[in-house]
Model the fold of this input.
Amino acid sequence: MNRLGAGIFLAVLGLVGCASTSNNARQDYGLGRVIDAAEIAQWDIDIKPSGEGLPDGEGTAAAGAILYQQYCTACHGDQGQGGTNDRLVAAFDREVNYSTGSPTRTIGNYWPYATTLFDYIRRAMPHNAPGSLTNQQVYDLSAWLLFQNGVIAENDVINRSTLPQLQMPASGLFYWSDEVVDLATD
Ligand code: HEC
Done:
């Protein structure tokens, strides 16, 4: 074993040593702090395809249209056609081969679950102020985008029970790999 090899070997031994110590007794390294359930709840915001995690409330496309013009148009175009950033409205076309990456894949022609919309908008949009929208606003914006993408009718209301039941146009493009993962319970 050369000198470098020996060094790496010792370093690995050191790590193993640390791991076994921390298994036996909690060590205080002077880093971080214990957080309580309320703080964990702020981070624990993922929404499953089953709808698990969706908050109370409901949204409509009419209310979402106003919010969209206020918060989203600047980057995504006034009809969701795209602008400085991604296109958000695209109808699913059975004749198109979406595996080529063209045309743009977005909500209506690619996303498999409607619940992802609520999750994504709430955690990431608007891009310059993520996390700033209320659950009410996110429901309304999701409804407007689902309406524009032809997934719901203009007057449909979305909420924690209707959103997971929506059939996305492109959901048939997806299939489980050999490794079976149950997204509903994972
Ligand atoms: C300052 C520019 C900006 C604003 C304002 C903005 N977005 Fe975005 N949006 C982006 C960028 C950049 C991305 C791509 C992010 C990435 O790929 O990581 C994106 C991606 C998205 C996507 C995912 C598109 C896809 O098919 O992958 C959705 C949905 C979305 N935005 C919704 C919204 C909504 C709703 C609003 C208004 C509340 C909004 N955005 C406001 C910049 C913006």
User: Anything to note?
Assistant: Residues 71-72, 74-76, 85-86, 88, 106-107, 120-121, 125-128, 141 surround heme C (CB under 6 Å). The mean pLDDT is 85. The two ends are 44 Å apart (CA to CA).
